[in-house]
Amino acid sequence: MPFMIAKRDGRREAFSTEKLERSLQTACAKRPLEIGAISKMVVDIENELHKLSKAEVEARVLGEMCIERLKILDRVAYIRFASVYRDFQDVDSFTKEVEALADSADEGGTKSQLRLIEDDVPRLAQRGRRQRTRQG
């Protein structure tokens, strides 16, 4: 049974599995995910939406379903999606979201992920960057 998505600006549009999958793929681009993880997430979300048995679902509800799953699946993808979905208006609100995510990970709130930079790789700040001197 097809249903409509009620957008924040008052528009209504038909739910599209393809659009949902594209937005999740964008958030998950170049992330080390298991094959089929995004497709499984789309199916799970679509099933949950059908269980609501409503002809119309608010976009906010759909967005929160995506955010909940991305937060568990991949924290970077979660932040990417949340930055668009929650429309952060300034750096402070974005920073607070990242800090809250880091705090929840420290408390065991999400599964650990692959490190982007291995510990034995020197960081830029540790490389002893040469100072540029002005010649005269």
In words, what does this structure look like?
This protein has helices at 17-27, 37-51, 59-73, 75-85, 91-106, and strands spanning 4-6, 12-14, 56-58. By secondary structure, it is mainly alpha-helical. It has one domain (4-115). The chain has a 3-stranded mixed β-sheet with strand order 2-1-3. Helix 1 (17-27) crosses helix 2 (37-51) and helix 1 (17-27) crosses helix 4.
Topology diagram in text:
Elements: E1 4-6, E2 12-14, H1 17-27, H2 37-51, E3 56-58, H3 59-73, H4 75-85, H5 91-106
Parallel strand pairs: 1-3
Antiparallel strand pairs: 1-2
Q: Report helical residue fraction.
A: 40-55%
Element pattern in H and E? EEHHEHHH
**Main sheet summary:** 3 strands, mixed
Our estimate of the beta-strand percent is: 5-15%
Q: Low-confidence spans: pLDDT under 50, at least 5 residues?
A: 109-129
Rg over alpha carbons: 20 Å
Mean pLDDT score, rounded? 80
- The number of helical runs is 5
Number of domains: 1
Tally of strands: 3
Biggest sheet: strand arrangement: 2-1-3
Distance between the termini: 75 Å
Feature tags:
136 residues, single chain, mainly alpha, three-stranded mixed β-sheet
Explain briefly what this protein structure is:
The protein has helices spanning 17-27, 37-51, 59-73, 75-85, 91-106, and strands at 4-6, 12-14, 56-58.
